Amino acid sequence: MKKIHFLFTVLFACVLFFTGCKKDEFVVTFNPNGGKGTLVTQNFTQKVAQSLMANFFTNDGYIFTGWNTAANGTGTSYNDQEIIQVSGHMVLYAQWTLISGEFTITFNANGGEGKMDPQKFEVGTLQQLLANRFFRDDHDFDSWNTSIDGSGEKFTDQERISISSDMTLYAQWASPIVIRHIVHFDANGGKGTMQPQEFIEGVEQKLTANTFEHANYIFTEWNTQKNGGGLSYSDTVGIRIYANMWLYAQWEIDSIRMK
Predict the structure, then answer these.
(1) Fewer CB atoms inside 10 A, N or C side of the chain?
(2) Domain boundaries 180-258, corresponding CATH code
(3) In the beta sheet, which residues pair with residue 250?
(4) N- to C-terminal Cα distance for the chain?
(5) Helix (H) and strand (E) counts for the chain?
(6) CA–CA dist 67, 36 (Å, integer)
(7) Is the pLDDT of residue 19 over 50?
């Protein structure tokens, strides 16, 4: 703590040197005193009342209660944005009070469906977020965010966090990566042309109806091997694929035409 106060004393001296204050001008420097953030120094004119700058420091698990001329709060106290007069250069230390109690996180599906109960958190205690139970058609759950549009603070599913106020977390959704594969059709001795058919990986889709012909033969099915030793598929059957594939027409002699 002594080292921190020494650094601020040096900073304070530097501010005075470089600002080149006039004799009737004084500088108020703001110290976060354990908090985080940045506040610029504020110039005051002697005997001229002026409002202190609004506090922008933060301190997780604490609430800002005012300023004091002593870090431990034993000096002169000032409220946030209080109108004051100063008669000399001054350092004001942020004063903090520990927040106690229980806060609630509310989960918002943000376009999704399902139900999640609110989650209680003890102030200052690390706790794991509930696992996401929302779902959304054609979307994957990505994360939680304090803003509905995803511009706020982001949290992963079941992340361990601590909070100092009630909070709403909005589900963030990502469109899944679409992987496409092609089914090629081979007449396997027959004649005609069939265009390759595009499939989305894992999505069921009906095969294109066979248009190949083979004199004195009847089309019976498709197969992943020319000799029929692979996987068989009937005409226009619904299938799911996970890689490009060739299907070979399978033929059977038309015994009626052959007579």
Answers:
(1) C
(2) 2.60.40.4270
(3) 221
(4) 105
(5) 2, 21
(6) 15
(7) no
